[in-house]
Amino acid sequence: MNQYTERIYNGLIKENPSMVMILGMCPTLATTTTVINGVGMGLSTTVVLVLANVVISLLRKVIPDEVRIPAFIVVIASLVTVVDFLMQGYFPALSQSLGVYIPLIVVNCIILGRAEAFASKNSVGLSFFDGLGMGLGFTFALAILGSIRELIGSGTWAGMQVMPKAYVPISIFVLQPGAFFALGCMIAVMTAIMSRKKKTKTAEQDCNPADCAGCASSAHCGKRIFEETAKAGLKEDGGDKA
Amino acid sequence: MKGILKHTALLAIITILAGLALGLVHEITLEPIAQAKEQQKQNAYKSVFADADAFEAKDFDQAEADKITSKFGKCSINEVVEAKKGNETIGYIITVTDGEGYAGNIQFTVGIDADSKVTGVSFLSIAESPGLGMNARDDASFTEQYTKPAEPVEQFEVVKAEPASDDQIQALSGATITSKAVTGGVNAALAYFSQVLKGGAA
Amino acid sequence: MKELLIIAISSAIVNNVVFSQFLGICPFLGVSKKTDQAVGMGGAVIFVLTLSAFVSELLYQFILVPLHFQYLETIVFILIIAAMVQFVEMFLKKSMPSLYRSLGVYLPLITTNCAVLGVALNNVDKYDYNILQGTVNGFATAVGFAIALILMAGIREKIEYNDIPKPFKGTAIVLIISGLMAIAFIGFSGII
């Protein structure tokens, strides 16, 4: 496996952003009411992720370390706005059903996380594949979650009737609680598989999902950003120690 | 100090470049976005008034319309369009936005013919819960209830059971709020039609 | 006044940010381990969200709309939020050190809380609120977030030593609990 395919594998399975890293939870829960919405969200995020990784990798020598977070945010926000316009112009129905979650890709921690952890340190080619892998991993997770919720909640898949007519859809699965239930079970299954894989070191010891849940305290994005911003804040204040 | 200035300048340059790029993309996509919206509108007009071959926007008095629609909750009339067949006006299409949906605004068009009968209801923007409120758009049998009555109906009413008469609308299961919002909007359009437009339509 | 009250109740409880709009899930999962942390984070979010809803509305109504720059809203709002978080942090550190000590560590995390940007965008795009309504919506949304966060922290402290099946330990069980809480919050949807 060369390093490019390794990046894809890493994003799809090993560090799957939704199921292993527990990043980008908001769109994961909110847009998976149907499989089409989920895949649409996943692909839009993938586009932004790939572009952001490439642009930031290109600019990595230009952007000074101290202001890189705001610079990344500007780059990401512009890319997201571009994607938003394109969606409104060419996929109006999808853009409508995803609503505010398209502009909210800006604050999706996966993107800032990858920019910070990978693209700002690696070559353009590698960053491209890293973004692609992570994006596809995200799309994959959203597609599964969307399928589960749509099948159980509406009895359809991508709008087609799949379940027999006699099946009464459990509509709570397309409502908000169903999102939490389905994702909770999916993460549990993923954790079980992962911990069986590495018998010597369980996933739990490695990184207790609860400890790095959400970007807020994730080792991959939030924490580092947090430390950096704290550091930057201190610097601006004349270097006094907190 | 020098470092700060340099960083500020760099950030400013990046931001300005990003802004310019966005402006450019905005210019490019302005047309397709407008087209997509126009296309959607035309489709909606066509689907509520299949007989008509041309649609012509009609000026209307927003303040007057608001006065009439204010009785029907948080809804307002956005556009009034004349549906024409040849040179004859065969009815009106009223675009209504109702703010009482489960997930924000629902915008739809209501077609009303010269006999004050509803010819169709078609959604322009709706973001209710899939499988429940979204059935207002996806399940044609819901909107068909508005067009079913043979006689003109003045006001529709939402019921949860099997409708007993033609002016009753059976609520979507699990989505009474959506059903009420849509019905409120249809009623507002009907009231506006009968009070303002009816005289004008031949 | 009545309208403002309706907006407040609806965004704090009926359309709770976490349970019904799925905004701010990351900090909700990440900072809900201990009640005192949850209170700190909740307080910080109330502070920043109210302020940012107000400032972003102000900018939108008085700068973006007159100049027809509405399409720049996403980038302008996120920069405003990031800058404001930084500013609030510096301000608190200088003038209210005691408040800073309790909220300070949570402030930088708020930039990536999608509830903040979500409220700013929804205020202008989805609801067309004016400045007062927008600010009330921001405050109430943040209160709703704090309620959700503190409730969850209380529950998580209680279940800490429970015998949870291994794969469900950590995030999975928190999500299941959130699902149950979301069911409870759906019950509020009839009150308005």
Describe what this molecule looks like in 3D.
- Chain A has 242 residues and is mostly helical.
- Chain A has one domain (3-236).
- Chain A is built from ten helices and two strands; from the N terminus they run H-H-H-H-H-H-H-E-E-H-H-H.
- Chain A has helices at residues 3-14, 25-30, 35-58, 68-90, 92-98, 109-119, 124-154, 176-197, 203-206, 222-236; strands at 156-157, 160-161.
- In chain A, strands 1-2 form a two-stranded antiparallel sheet.
- In chain A, strand 1 and strand 2 (160-161) form a beta hairpin.
- In chain A, helix 3 (35-58) packs parallel to helix 6 (109-119), helix 3 packs antiparallel against helix 7 (124-154) and helix 7 (124-154) packs across helix 8 (176-197).
- Chain B has 202 residues and is α+β, with helices and mostly antiparallel strands.
- Chain B contains five helices and seven strands.
- The longest helix of chain B is centred in the first third of the chain and has 47 residues, at 2-48.
- With 192 residues, chain C is an all-alpha fold.
- Chain C has a domain at 2-6 and 35-157.
- Chains in contact: A-B, A-C, B-C.
- Bin the helical content of chain A: 55-70%
Low-confidence stretches of chain B: none
Helix/strand-derived category of chain A reads: mainly alpha
Cα-atom radius of gyration of chain A: 19 Å
Largest sheet of chain A: 2 strands, antiparallel
Structural class of chain B: alpha+beta
Major sheet: arrangement of strands of chain B: 1-2-3-4-5
Figure out the total of helices of chain A: 10
Q: What form of chain A results from the Cα inertia axes?
A: globular
- Average pLDDT score of chain A: 80
Give the arrangement of secondary structure elements:
The complex is a heterotrimer of chains A (242), B (202) and C (192).
Chain A: H1 3-14, H2 25-30, H3 35-58, H4 68-90, H5 92-98, H6 109-119, H7 124-154, E1 156-157, E2 160-161, H8 176-197, H9 203-206, H10 222-236
Antiparallel strand pairs in A: 1-2
Chain B: H1 2-48, E1 54-58, H2 62-69, E2 75-85, E3 88-101, E4 104-113, E5 118-125, H3 135-138, H4 140-147, E6 157-159, E7 168-170, H5 176-197
Chain C: H1 2-14, H2 25-30, H3 35-64, H4 73-95, H5 97-103, H6 107-110, H7 114-125, H8 131-158, H9 171-186
